[in-house]
Design a protein that fits this description.
DNA primase DNAg catalytic core, N-terminal domain, five-stranded mixed β-sheet, 52% helix
Length: 603
């Protein structure tokens, strides 16, 4: 876990205007900055960034958050990834990483990472320059229907047919200081053969190939895919696994496609680099590809951070079906009732590029819309080639389905698939549950147990909500609550008291200056995150200055305290009428009458 104190310190140092400004064109508008929202299509700006609150908010789609939240939403990064990127931008080290290595080793590792990244950037520039003077490569790309604009957008290049082409950029490969980072990041291959002086022979991995730079979610080049232009094997040559690049976690074209994915509402996963680039040329800029490896659960997780809808496109032959089955298995742990995953199988003679060119964009768009839902593909996978008229066929279908259903989280989709499988195999949903081990409690096997109704906390309203808003804006206001006020406000058993007690405790724990974004991130990790989200949205709609906030807070607290005092007074008056009140109770009653009168005047 990353300590909350570190998050607070980080967000105090980061300027959200700079972070968002790298991706959104912002203009000053009063105290805030305005721009077109990157999370939905709009023609007039409703997206605002507050330098005082260090928060962004869109009044059109409701998206809001801190600098961390923006990177997660915009780039599809995980929470730790977004924190690490922000920390690196201001020269901080995330405690988890900092404490793992001694300072000297940490500095060495950082220098090594910088050297590898620099090598990849320089190599990218070299390949791009080489493309301009390679007529055969230019002709090949034109023959595939690509324009110079789309080639530039994807940073396409050409690796010359030269065993030491990169020496023109980096210097002699015989120099170990030059060659070591190039070997480590996969640009050079080090042979077992040695020269007369004992040095290993080193040569370029990529030769006479169209070069496709592979970028991470931040846009940095971390690897390459090289494609032959004629006959030759392998057709695609990929960078090896390196400290920068892991095929099982990266997707080609995701950085370039991120805007189109948001605009279209789905991501299209295809099988090759050229498919991605060609589809972007033909109007489908939301396509990405796996990197010469099967789709992994990490790939799926990364895609579902970008969008709620994923369409996998595969060839309709047996190899395509096998690849689709592996993708299905990778998807199952991440399916959810609010996510849509579909599978598109093109005719065997087509890939997406050729299909669009021959049949047209609308025909391909129709194919995408009619792609097979995950549920149907799963059921088809476990029943194909089986004779469901026979007990053996039905039993085999249940056997094949068991690991797939077990991989899925419980939910509505799994429930529907269980019911359809039961219909197909002549059983009941309860029997499928039992056979597949979907119920951990033996007493509940054999029936669909009704889920316990979720109890929803009642959100504070009126004065309580206003106090929460003011405390979120200015945590130091909690110091204005004396012991009596805290006992009366926070000691009850209502949900309002629970939330206020938690918030006051959080305010009390704040040390030094803390901005709104940092404090909001802290509250978002609490059990009352939903209540705080409502209050945060209200805060973002108005500018609350500190001086009026103090007056507003004191007035609200005064009114809130009047009610518990009134209830106590009513109880004591009842004791006096009944003749059971002692002298202490009568004295307390007299104090309450005066206190309530005083608070009414203040209010």
């Amino acid at each position: 876990m990353i300590p909350q104190s570190f998050i607070q310190d980080l967000l105090n140092r980061v300027d959200i205007v700079d972070v968002v400004g790298k991706y959104v064109q912002l203009k000053k508008g009063g105290a805030n900055f305005m721009g077109l929202c990157p999370f939905h299509n709009e023609k007039s700006p409703s997206f605002t960034v507050s330098p005082t609150k260090q928060f962004y908010h869109c009044f059109g789609c409701g998206a809001h958050g801190s600098a961390i939240g923006f990177l997660m939403e915009f780039s599809g990064q995980s929470y730790p990834e977004a924190v690490r990127e922000l920390a690196q931008s201001v020269g901080m080290s995330v405690p988890e990483e900092r404490d793992r290595l001694p300072p000297g080793q940490r500095a060495e590792q950082q220098a090594r990472s910088v050297a590898l990244s620099d090598a990849m950037t320089r190599a990218t520039d070299f390949y791009r320059r080489q493309l301009r003077s390679a007529p055969q490569a230019i002709q090949y790309l034109k023959g595939r229907g690509l324009t110079g604009e789309i080639a530039a957008n994807f940073g396409l290049g050409y690796a010359p047919d030269d065993w030491q082409g990169l020496e023109a950029v980096f210097g002699s490969y015989r120099d170990d200081n030059v060659s070591a980072p190039l070997v480590e990041c996969g640009l050079l291959i080090e042979s077992d053969k040695r020269d007369a002086d004992g040095k290993p022979r080193r040569y370029d991995r990529f030769r006479d190939r169209i070069m496709f730079p592979i970028r991470n979610t931040k846009g940095a080049v971390i690897g390459f895919g090289g494609r032959v232009m004629g006959q030759g094997e392998p057709k695609y040559l990929n960078s090896p696994e390196t400290p920068l690049f892991s095929k099982g976690t990266e997707l080609y074209g995701l950085f370039e496609a991120r805007h189109a994915i948001r605009e279209t509402g789905y991501v299209l996963v295809v099988e090759g680099y050229m498919d991605v680039v060609a589809l972007a040329q033909l109007g489908f800029a939301n396509a990405v590809a796996t990197l010469g490896t099967a789709c992994t659960p990490v790939h799926v997780q990364k895609l579902l951070r970008q969008t709620d809808a994923v369409v996998f496109s595969f060839d309709g032959d047996s190899a395509g079906r096998r690849a689709a089955r592996r993708a299905l298995e990778a998807c199952l742990p991440h399916v959810a009732d609010n996510k849509t995953i579909r599978f598109l199988f093109l005719p065997a003679e087509h890939d997406p590029d050729s299909y669009v060119r021959e049949e047209g964009t609308e025909a391909f768009a129709t194919q995408v819309r009619n792609a097979m839902p995950l549920s149907r593909f799963l059921l088809q996978s476990v029943t194909e080639d089986l004779d469901l008229r026979q007990p053996e066929g039905r039993a085999r279908a249940q056997y094949e389905a068991k690991p797939l259903l077990q991989a899925m989280p419980a939910g509505g989709l799994r429930l529907q698939i269980v019911r359809e499988l039961a219909d197909a195999t002549g059983t009941t949903p309860a029997e499928i549950e039992a056979i597949c081990g979907l119920r951990s409690d033996p007493a509940r096997v054999g029936r669909f147990a009704q889920p316990r109704p979720r109890t929803r906390r009642q959100a504070p309203t009126g004065l309580e909500q206003r106090v929460i808003q003011l405390l979120m804006c200015y945590p130091a206001l909690s110091a204005r609550l004396d012991e009596d006020a805290r006992a009366l406000l926070l000691g009850g058993e209502s949900s309002d008291s629970e939330v206020l007690a938690h918030l006051v405790e959080a305010c009390d724990s704040v040390q030094g200056e803390v901005n709104f974004a940092a404090f909001s991130e802290h509250l978002a990790q609490s059990p009352y995150a939903e209540v705080y989200a409502v209050a945060r949205a209200a805060v973002l709609r108005e500018e609350i200055e500190e001086a009026p906030a103090i007056q507003d807070f004191d007035a609200a607290i005064t009114k809130l305290l009047a009610e518990p005092l009134r209830r106590e007074l009513d109880g004591l008056q009842a004791e006096v009428v009944a003749g059971t009140a002692d002298e202490a109770a009568k004295q307390r009653m007299r104090w309450l009458v005066g206190e309530i009168h005083r608070r009414r005047q203040l209010g």
